[in-house]
């Protein structure tokens, strides 16, 4: 596992009008970008880009990036996750929720309304990744 780059705030390329997909620039380097307005975490790590729901699957607390950018942690009950969203330890009982994600050239499209849970739909959860 490589360490993630810097954590940044990111805004959608176009404002989200109601429900539906949001477009972002493809992250150029490893790192984490958080779009608080749309409750999306974008994470580029080791040649892959993931989009996660901002909230912990345990009790919906906003997740934080761990020190040294080694993954994510819930500040409420200390659940820890790898950069790909895999659950490591803590009170949560499953991986982070991955959001539907696609790539079109230098643009990433994420639909914050379509989340995949690893325990109820492992195939879609596993496929919710963009290779770079």
Can you summarize this structure?
With 132 residues, the chain is mainly β. Helix content is 5%, strand content 39%. It has a single domain (7-131), classed as Rieske Iron-sulfur Protein, CATH 2.102.10.10.
Oligomer: single chain
Distance between the termini: 16 Å
Order of helices and strands: EEEEEEEEEEEHE
Strand count, sense and barrel status of the largest sheet are: 5 strands, mixed
The CATH class designation is: Mainly Beta
Overall domain count: 1
Q: Any idea what the shape is?
A: globular
The helix content is under 10%
Q: Which CATH architecture would you pick? A: 3-layer Sandwich
How many strand units? 12
Approximate strand percentage: 35-45%
Topology-level CATH name: Rieske Iron-sulfur Protein
Which class of secondary structure composition applies to the elements? Answer: mainly beta
Strand order of the largest sheet: 1-3-4-5-12
Radius of gyration: 13 Å
Average pLDDT rating = 86
| CATH-defined superfamily | Rieske [2Fe-2S] iron-sulphur domain
Stretches with pLDDT under 50, minimum 5 residues: none
The count of helical stretches stands at: 1
